[in-house]
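Exercise 7b. Backbone tokens:
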């Protein structure tokens, strides 16, 4: 039989070891929250034996082995945002030996970590920061939609004007899917012809999207210059629209709600795609989508007839309608009653479709041949005479306004058409974030004796309503 150990001193040593182990374990499990200059709350999550926090720009993602309910979710603002995430204030601390964060204070020496000290914020805790509601001052209401109100505002961080799209959150319903979709898509789109998302503010009651402020939209601009725009200005607006669409289409994103109200116009004439609430990332293989998307006047015939299987050609019909409206000064197909009336107006100009002109049209849910008058196709200048006054305009418009979706010209191909041949070649060499107005001699022409000015009327900055203003 083994000899029994004395009970006093060994027990004391074991107690000290347990206490030391408990102290080390607790220090490893601590989580540090660090405020950065930019106002971002970053949580560094790491496996102690293999990784460490790398400062302001490097956030270590949880390891794949961590159970989903144990992962720390992080809110990012301005440079990136996941609308499905909770605010940093609601983030649960994770107590797992495999996942911890290096705290700003060393557990052993009590001194500040040199890595974290190097990135510490010199600014006052009360100074305005990105991602904070009190960093923006509301100046005036610009518009109100079904789920959001848009304000003109001013940033207290840099003094610049902004547009604040305040989305009301319902506790029962949560964040509107359109807001989630818009924020998710816009955070990854950086182009001079797409409205820039500056910041996102998430509170319990609201989600606020902070956009660059743009003075007016194409609808208001055309209202100020009735009877059609200057042909050179139409060309520059169309070029910018196609440039922005080409950018998103190459990333398999459809806008799905193209109309003049959603095309913002800056004071120099820069056009920007806005309101991505109905936009959708088009994945492969094809999925079906709701056919209740584009405002009636700009909705293509395939969608009007019930098709839910479409791609980038959906947006190109809207381009054709907007192109004609800029030249002619009136909407191309201003339906006054319902979908039936809208289709009749389209078929009156382009001809009533058949299996010969539109393969598989008879399989569309709402196509009933006996419901439509049989019309033959006309030249577009017969419906819109001003197309005949601009070189290659009628030809280009006809390539957009094709009833059979697969016959429509893509945005990328449209930029290479003869219609744009007199523009400076440098326009095709610009980087994504470079404006076309950085090219010498590219500028808007005077419209009806009035140079472009900041419009006094208010623009929607992508308000949620999808109804026509007319």
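Sequence design result:
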């Amino acid at each position: 039989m083994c000899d029994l150990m004395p009970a006093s001193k060994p027990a004391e040593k074991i107690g000290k070891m347990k206490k030391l182990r408990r102290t080390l374990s607790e220090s490893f499990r601590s989580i540090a929250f660090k405020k950065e200059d930019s106002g971002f709350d970053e949580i560094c999550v790491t496996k102690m034996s293999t990784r460490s926090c790398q400062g302001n720009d490097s956030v270590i993602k949880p390891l794949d082995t961590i159970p989903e309910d144990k992962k720390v979710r992080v809110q990012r603002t301005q440079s990136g945002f996941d609308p499905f995430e909770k605010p940093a204030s609601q983030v649960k601390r994770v107590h797992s030996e495999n996942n911890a964060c290096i705290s700003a204070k060393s557990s052993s020496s009590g001194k500040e970590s040199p890595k974290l000290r190097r990135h510490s914020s010199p600014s006052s805790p009360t100074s305005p920061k990105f991602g904070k509601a009190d960093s923006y001052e509301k100046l005036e209401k610009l518009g109100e939609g079904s789920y959001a109100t848009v304000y003109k505002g001013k940033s207290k961080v840099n003094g610049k004007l902004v547009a604040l799209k305040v989305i009301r959150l319902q506790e029962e319903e949560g964040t509107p899917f359109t807001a989630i979709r818009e924020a998710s898509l816009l955070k990854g789109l950086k182009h001079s012809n797409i409205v820039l998302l500056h910041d996102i503010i998430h509170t319990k009651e609201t989600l606020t999207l902070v956009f660059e402020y743009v003075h007016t939209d194409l609808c208001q601009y055309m209202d100020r210059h009735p009877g059609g725009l200057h042909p050179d200005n139409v060309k520059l607006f169309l070029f910018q629209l196609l440039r922005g669409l080409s950018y998103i289409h190459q990333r398999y994103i459809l806008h799905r709600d193209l109309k003049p109200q959603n095309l913002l116009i800056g004071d120099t004439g820069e056009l920007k795609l806005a309101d991505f609430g109905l936009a959708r990332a088009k994945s492969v293989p094809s999925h079906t989508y709701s056919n209740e998307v584009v405002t009636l006047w700009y909705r293509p015939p395939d969608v009007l007839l019930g098709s839910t299987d479409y791609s980038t050609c959906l947006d190109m019909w809207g381009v054709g309608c907007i192109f004609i409206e800029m030249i002619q000064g009136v909407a191309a197909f201003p339906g006054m009653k319902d979908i039936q009336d809208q289709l009749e107006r389209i078929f009156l100009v382009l001809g009533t479709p058949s299996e010969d002109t539109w393969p598989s049209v008879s399989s569309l849910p709402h196509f009933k041949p006996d419901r439509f008058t049989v019309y033959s196709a006309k030249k577009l200048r017969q419906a819109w005479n001003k197309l005949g006054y601009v070189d290659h305009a009628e030809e280009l418009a006809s390539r957009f306004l094709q009833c059979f979706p697969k016959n429509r010209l893509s945005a990328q191909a449209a930029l290479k058409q003869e219609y744009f041949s007199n523009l400076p070649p440098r326009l095709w060499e610009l980087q994504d974030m470079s404006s076309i107005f950085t090219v010498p001699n590219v500028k808007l022409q005077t419209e009806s004796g009035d140079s472009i000015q900041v419009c006094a009327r208010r623009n929607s900055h992508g308000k949620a309503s999808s109804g026509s203003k007319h």
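Instructor comment: The mean pLDDT is 74. The chain has eleven helices and twelve strands.
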